[in-house]
Amino acid sequence: MNNYTFINGGVTSPQGFTANGICAGVKQATSAAITKAIKANDSSVIPNGKRDLALIACDKPCSAAAIFTKNLVKSDTIYVTQKHLENGVAQAVIVNSGNANACNPDGYEKAEAMAKLAADALGIDENDVIVASTGVIGQPLPLAPIESGVNALKDILSKDGGTNAAEAIMTTDTVKKEWAVQTVIDGKTVTIGGIAKGSGMIHINMGTTLSFVTTDAAISAQMLHSALIEAADVSYNMVSVDGDTSTNDTLAILASGYAGNAEITEKNEDYKIFLQALTAAFKKVARLLASDGEGATKLLVCNVSGAADEKAAKTIAKSVICSSLVKAAMFGADANCGRILCAIGYSGAQVNDVKKIDVLYKSSAGEILVCQNGCGLAFDEEKAEKILLENEIEIIITLGDGASTAEAYGCDLTYDYVKINGDYRT
Amino acid sequence: MNNYTFINGGVTSPQGFTANGICAGVKQATSAAITKAIKANDSSVIPNGKRDLALIACDKPCSAAAIFTKNLVKSDTIYVTQKHLENGVAQAVIVNSGNANACNPDGYEKAEAMAKLAADALGIDENDVIVASTGVIGQPLPLAPIESGVNALKDILSKDGGTNAAEAIMTTDTVKKEWAVQTVIDGKTVTIGGIAKGSGMIHINMGTTLSFVTTDAAISAQMLHSALIEAADVSYNMVSVDGDTSTNDTLAILASGYAGNAEITEKNEDYKIFLQALTAAFKKVARLLASDGEGATKLLVCNVSGAADEKAAKTIAKSVICSSLVKAAMFGADANCGRILCAIGYSGAQVNDVKKIDVLYKSSAGEILVCQNGCGLAFDEEKAEKILLENEIEIIITLGDGASTAEAYGCDLTYDYVKINGDYRT
Questions:
Q1: Which of B34, B35, B72 best probes binding to A when mutated, by most A CB atoms within 10 angstroms?
Q2: How far apart are CA A173 and CA B355, in angstroms?
Q3: Are A415 and B418 inside 8 Å of each other by CB?
Q4: Measuring CA to CA, which residue among A87, A97, A44, A40 is closest to residue A62?
Q5: Can you tell me the ipTM of this complex?
Q6: For chain B, N or C: smaller number of CB within 10 Å?
Q7: What are the φ/ψ torsions at residue A313 (nearest 5 degrees)?
Q8: With an 8 Å Cβ cutoff, is B184 touching chain A?
């Protein structure tokens, strides 16, 4: 039973939070192409003021937690945010797009400076600021636009500014990603809201991408951290766009406590209700991230059931979603079952009997069984094509090994993925 | 010092071997598109007699060995070949393209039937036949064209037929892959030759793709098996086109002994000379496979040095070569260093100090350092583009952890990869 309801809203929906996002000029100051265009006096290339700086703030210190990329090569923003979250308290988030502030010799100092700029503008402790960046790796972060941007942002923080914040963290995203969900905990209405950016360099095995979540629930930093890990495990950690895990991924949450519920400090029933709503929201984000993957025309959802254990189910679902050949076949609406079986076979998961694998494609246009008992079936190619021409495809895999299930989210591999990534920096 | 010389030739260069390849009609009889075209009386779609059946034979039984895909989902051809190689003896290879004979209920019986057809035609024991297939998975293998094809082939086996055999095992390959190398063992000239098919569904971690190797060296089946594993480990197992490992991969070798050297039965100096020549040939094949990867316009060679151990070096080289983002950047001649660092960071290999990583791009047009001590450098974009517009790019990564090295082979990710794989079966 669902104890939550999605509502229109985002990162400012929970009580206590305001936000906004503007064009501060980080993208312009970073791009080599822009520099070249300015030099060449070619105004056609100079971008049109895309938002690139977001500020989220609460009117009081919040309990807070975050999880990060598992990439060994990390943006210094992550080390600064980790330090700032050591005490489990934060009050604001400053985040820029256009420059990842990763692999730079002065990255740490600049990440600290970003936090201090936000803290000074808001009149709060710099240790209570979460800092994040996304964009090009290995190019110096320009601080000047962030300084002027933060000072502009502090004056326009508002309840209506969440959407601008969602827009300001976009890179190659084509749609803004924001959401809000409500549930009832301890008799009080609790709201959770968030924004996320996705698109490329997105893979399983971590809290993928940049995501900032707010809530007015009263909940300890430790329980926030647990809830992030549990919810991300079946959502963010089951999404792949291209198999690459970024240097900057940060999934952070701040809880203001304004809902007035008794503070959640252990994994009790209230925690479970909170987790259920958070997980539902994260799964929604996972689908958004996958369907807006770079160049994607289709969301792919791989459902695995009948696995020997959860690990095998997850491993297989992720392997299928990550296969370039499966992704390209889905782009071409080709009901190839060999590539699905192939991806199951090399996943590394134990499959006790490959002769018990069934594969079915499903979409709003119907469903079609293409593999039964490990063998390809003759099927109606025209029907299959019709099913696969839809923009949301379920690949349903049934094993004969046990009762475990998993779901993973991906997208098709398209000409546009190659185009976007063949020429990203310019 | 190199003790070997590449010569013009292929699978029939070693003494004792003949081969040929023809259009037997397997591709036609398999393709759903063809079936549809025939029904619709649309002769424009019916293919033009591409070769799809190859036979390689020796005039005497050979010592023989093979290594296979590690995919759990295997073509039945593999089980049949494994059974036939239990005694370390083989005399012929029959292989078709156009249909993988994988994931079929009657795959095993048909693979056995294929071997028997070849054996009967040649008048040899069916247990001395290696059988392999490549092509579409999950569609019934048509035996009739193989039966008539084998009988046609047996009459045209020749020293000149190796190139036709190389052509007959091609699927989406754009170039035939054959090679021959000579070395001197025990005072005798030893020749090794081979053919390979590649193109897609190619990944590390196994004897990737179909490859058939012949030699006139005298060498035991056990030593052949060892040499295959050792040589493949630094060649076939370091190639990735798309991260997918096939259900059918087979790398088999037959040794006639006609060179007259004292039989190699242990890992002595003669073994080392044989292995050196075999390894050089396999590395050449690895480059061929990568540069002819589906849709590829460029060969990527990733050199890693300064790693803590060989495992780390290999893991990093492979991770870089496999990154969709790196591959797309190379297609676009974009000297992005962030994606290289990112792929190093998520490879899973231990890197003791990411602040000691250097990255350099090199081609026949020059070289350019883009990352030093883990940080992106400002570099001449025009020079970098010129270097990356060549069709063979080296990505040279230097770590500061130790003295181990590795080399991996890949290709760029292009529109054509998507095109080829978006519509493979039709």
A1: B72
A2: 30
A3: yes
A4: A87
A5: 0.77
A6: N
A7: -60, -45
A8: no
